[in-house]
Structures are given as C-alpha cells and as structure tokens.
Amino acid sequence: MHSPVRDVLLAGVVFLVPSVAVSQSVPDTPAAEEKGGEEIIVQSTRSGRRVQDEPVRVEVIDRDEIEEKILMRPGNIVMILSETGGLRVQITSPALGAANIRVQGMDGRYTQLLADGLPLYGGQASSLGLLQIPPTDLGQVEVIKGAASALYGPSALGGVINLVSRRPAGAPEAEALFNVTSRDGQDLTAYSSAPLAEGWGASITGGYHRQTRQDLDDDGWIDMPGYERWTVRPRVFWEGGDNASMFLTAGAMTEQRRGGMLPGRTTPDGSTFVQLQDTDRFDAGLVAQVPLDGVWTAHLRASGMTQDHRHVFGDVTENDRHDTVFAEASLSGRSGTTSWIGGAAYQRDGFRSRTFGAFDYAYVVPGLFAQLEQDLGPEVTMAASGRVDFHDEYGTQFSPRLSLLYRPGRWTIRASGGRGFYAPTPFVEEIEAAGLSRLEPLGDLKAESAKTASLDVGYKAGPIEANVTLFGSNTSDTTRLETVAVDRVRLINVDGTTRIRGTELLLRYRRNGFTVTGSYVYVDAKEPDPDAARRRTVPLTPKHTGGLVAMWEEHDKGRLGLEVYYTGPQSLEDNPYRTRSPGYFEVGMMGEISLGKARLFLNAENVFGKRQTQYDPLVRPSRGPDGRWTVDAWGPLEGFVLNGGIRLKFGG
Asked: What dihedral angle (degrees, nearest 10) is formed by the CA atoms of 388, 390, 396, 397?
C-alpha cells in the first residue's frame, strides 16, 4: 500500500516516539471535574461556566474515566460513549463494523460530533468516524442531549458530542501504549506534549491500529472486519494575558477496511461479495479569542476537512469525496448578572461521487446566532438561545432553545426545551452500509425537524450522587427508505410524527477510591407504520437498558473494575429470522497495576461470549432491495474478547 496520508503519518509517529520525556499527569483539561477541589469548565455551551452552573445539562466524561476506557479499547472512542447513559452506539454496517451514536433514542445522523468545538469529522460524521478516532489525547468529552441546533446548526438536531483535547502541562510529558487482543488485533498509540516559549505549548499524538478479519461462526461471512489504520494529530496552544488564547490543530488518517465474504466462499445466491472501504482524511482547525476591553471578547473558530473514500460493494466500486468548510466569528460579554454571545457562522458541506454523480450536493449554510444568560438570583439562572440558518436548499430555519437552572441546597433542577432541523442527505444507515447503486435519485425532500424537552433533577450529599431525567422528542418529516422494486429503493419523507418519551436514572457512591455506579434508561419510541394506519415501536431501540459498574482505584498502585450491562428486547425490521430480539447481559472485568513509569493492564469484554450469530445467521437468505446482505445488528458481533498491554508514562 502506498498513500500520501500514510507517508505523513509515518513521519509523525517517527517524530513522536523517540524524544518523549515523562511523568505522572497533572490535570490536563481546561479544568477538571469538581472533585478533589478541581472544576470542569464546559466548552460546548460557549459560556465558560462551570459544569454545575450551566442551565443546559452537560454530561462530562473526565480524564480519569477516559483513561479507564482507553484500557478497554485504545483504538477508538466507542467504549467511552457506549457506556454513557442515554447514548447508544448502534452498529450500522455489520460488514464493516461501522456505527453511529443515538442520543435518547433519536437517529444517529442527528448527532453532531465535534473536536474542540469544530466539525473536524464533517457536518455529518460518517458511520465509520467513531471507529477512526483514538482517545489518547482527549482531556474530556462533553455531551449535550436534545436539540442543540440553536448553537451548532442543522447537524445538532439530536445532540452534541464535543471531544476536548488535552492541554500541555507545565513540563514535558509523554506516554505510549501497546495493546493486543485475543482476536488478533493490535494498537500502538503515543502522545507527547511540552511547553515551548512563554505562553506557548504543543502536543502530538499518533497511532497504528490493525485487526485481522474474523469469521466467528464459520459461515464464510466476516463477523469482525479486518483493517489497518494510521493516525497523526499535532496541536499548538497559546495563552496570553487578559484571557487571550489560540489553538491550532491538524490531523491526517488513512485506513483500509475489509469485510463481506471470505475468499473462496459465496453468498446464498452463489456469488462472491467482498466489501471494502479505503479512507484518507485531512483536517485543520483554529480556535482563538481576544479580549477587546473589560466587557467584550472576540471569538473566531474555523476548520476544513476533506475525506476521500473508495467503497467496494461486491461488483460495484464507488469513489467519492466529502468536504466541510466552517467559519464563525462572535462577540461575548458579561455585565453584572447578565452574559451574552452573538455572532455569524458559515458552513459548506459537500459530496462529490465519481461513480454516481446524480447524488452530488453542496449545502451552503450561513447563519446568525445569539445566546443570553441571566442570573435571576443566587439559585436561579435562565438561558435563551436562538439561531437563524439560511440554507441554500431547505430555506430559512429558526432554531430556539430555552433552559432554566434552579439549585436549592443539595438539589439541582434543570428544565430545557428546543427545536432544530436537519438537512437530508442520501446517507441514511442502510445506504452507508450498502452504497448508492440501488438508490433512486433524490426527489423533492423536506427538511427534518424535531422538538425536544427534558426535566433533570439531581441530588448530591457526601459520597452519594443521584440523578433523574425525563426526556421527550417529536420528530417530523423523517426520511426513510421505501422499496420501489426488487432491487431499487428511494428516500422519502414519512407522514406523521416520531414520538420518543423516556427516563434516565443514575445513582453513584464514591468513597476512598471505590466507586459504584448504577444506571437505567427507559425509552418508549413510536413511529408511523408504513404498512398500516397505526404506530409501531422504532426498530433497534430497546425499551430497557441498565448497567452496574464497580471500580476501585488507588493512585500509583492500580485499579480493578467490574461491569454488568443489560440490553432489553428490540423490535426488528426486515429480519427473516425474527421480529423481536432477546434481551442479553454483557459482563466485563479489567485490572491495571502500576510499576513505576510502566502500567500493565488486562481487560475482558463480554466474558460469557454473547453473540448475535449464536441465535441466527447474520447473512440474509437473499439480498435486500437496498443491496445489503446482512440483517441489522441487534447484539454483540465479536463475542468474548480479551485484551491487554503496557502503558508507559514519562516526564511531567
């Protein structure tokens, strides 16, 4: 394989590994969560408030939690997100292992994935995007659930996930991790950061990841796709006086992924069907702020991304390019108990297919936005935000959001509601899995829209923390594939409203390095039934999910953890083997021991080996109208996986 991206990545990793110095890490987020006297400052809401002072509920996964998940899956961020209440990582292409993030039951395409507030993975991140982002250099992850279009435009209809990078510490530091799995997978990642001149700092992270393809049930179909991936990302930071700052980032990634039938094996109709995807991605971004006087601050954010794909679906090869250009300028200020921000944004999302040019598009979306936060008293804060987007294809769209925070004593109560919209593209889950060859050219579609609301009640006293959230959403004009022939489908807007109602429960106990967390999520999701004048349960949306996690950790010694997760039955669509999946449990255990600058870790996932192919085949008896050879993934596909390795830390 020869790729210009790989040449860049090799050079970056060669630079990264030898010269590292190291240490025990100090708090490397802009500020860490309020435990042990530290704080978390939220970036996603643009207000610069502490997480506990935000009227909008923001769930923050801090560096300690990220480090736990890195030991479980160091190659991507799936494990970090899948074990967060209200988020569900749904496999969208069993052939390639691709997945997206569903927030409180809403479709994954409605979730905006950002890096330091920038759309570095595109306006609509591809379903392989989650699998191509290593967590090595993350300082924290911020999650906003519900329509966030008021701040981030049409791609944030269901919520926002913001990946915040680690900031360089006061001294050079570095770390390297090597991981192997019982399924013949390997990961090598490295991170290095150092202060430079006065106010300046820099970091670089890189990695190599590979997996051998696996056919676990010996039916000829690859259950775990094989891949080889290289990544590199340098960053530069500057902090001046009076709260002025600048942040620059660039990234490159190349991956070759293979799934489908094994060589020499055939599908039920006697044909060979290989599924491949080669990806090359480059991106760059800038975030800066400059105080203008004692009240006003100017902000600038800008980024660009280009991503080339080569897809192979059996005897069809598709070559295409996705690109995103983004720029935003704003002014913020605070006077007494009032703070505000307002500005203008521009985003262009483009797709160009060298194979099926009828699906090319270039959405140009300038917009204006504003947010006002008012402290109504020592215990009450209200926030109102709104955005007007001038979409060149779907017209002018207004997205408001209103939130209220009330904090009496040990209680925290938040109420929030908003509206947003989503600009349809050809890339619903089935098309990302099967390609464009069987899709009719898009007709006159409407923008999808949703109204979301939530009520959140939290309580914290000593070692005990509890939280209850009630949430709901109504989505209109959702897009869905409709079969028009035995081998043709088209994308349509569905009449009626998809209604989701649900509850999240969280209970946590912390004492002397020991933490026990219990969680439960109930989701009742109903959508119009295309074959009857009634409503049906949204497929692949379990009503009941829950988890119990116990973790012991002692600094400079190690950690031990036990996880038990339950996923309830799910309604299935277009599955010839069953209409409803069984519920299942997954059990995991992990341990890490510190030996000076080295840490040894061992992790067991899905200890009892639950696997969807233990119940039914993954391959359909015949190919679907949309081109897919597999049924939807409703359960684990990998079975039991054991991984372990060594992590080295230097400097600090």
From this structure: -40
Residue whose C-alpha is closest to residue 548's, from 574, 509, 497: 509
User: Taking 60 as the threshold, does the pLDDT of residue 557 lie above it?
Assistant: yes
- Residue 26 has a pLDDT of 32
**pLDDT per residue as tens digits for the range 102-149:** 999 999 999 999 999 999 998 887 777 888 888 999 999 999 999 888
Give the number of domains in the chain: 1
- CATH number reported for the structural domain that contains residue 146 in this entry: 2.40.170.20
Q: With CA atoms as reference, report the closest residue to 93 among 640, 639, 637.
A: 637
* Residue 370: how many other CB atoms lie within 10 Å: 15
Continuous segment of H or E residues that includes residue 147:
none
pTM (2 d.p.): 0.91
Predicted confidence (pLDDT) per residue in 29-67, tens digit: 333 334 444 567 777 666 677 878 888 888 999 988 898
Q: Tell me which amino acid residue 587 is.
A: V
Q: Is the dihedral of CA 510, 513, 514, 518 positive or negative?
A: positive
Nearest to 189 by CA among 166, 161, 210, 213: 210
Residue 534: burial class (beta carbons within 10 Å; 0-12, 13-18, 19+)? exposed
What integer pLDDT is reported at residue 152 of this predicted model? 87
Q: What is the pLDDT of residue 23?
A: 30
Q: Contact at 8 Å (CB) between 493 and 475?
A: no
pLDDT greater than 70 at residue 573:
yes
What residue type is 148 in one-letter code?
A
CB burial string 595-629: b at 16+ within 10 A, e below: eeeebebebbbbbeebbbbeeebbbbeebbbbbbb
Burial class (CB in 10 A: 0-12, 13-18, 19+), 485: exposed
Supply the range of the domain harboring residue 105.
4-651
Residue 242: helix, strand or coil by DSSP?
helix
Contact by Cβ (8 Å): 217, 246: no
- HEC string of 580-616? ECCCEEEEEEEEEEEECCEEEEEEEECCCCCCHHHCC
> DSSP assignment, residue 156?
G
Q: What is the mean pLDDT of residues 199-223?
A: 96
Residue 136 phi, psi (nearest 5)? -55, -40
Q: Which amino acid is at 14?
A: V
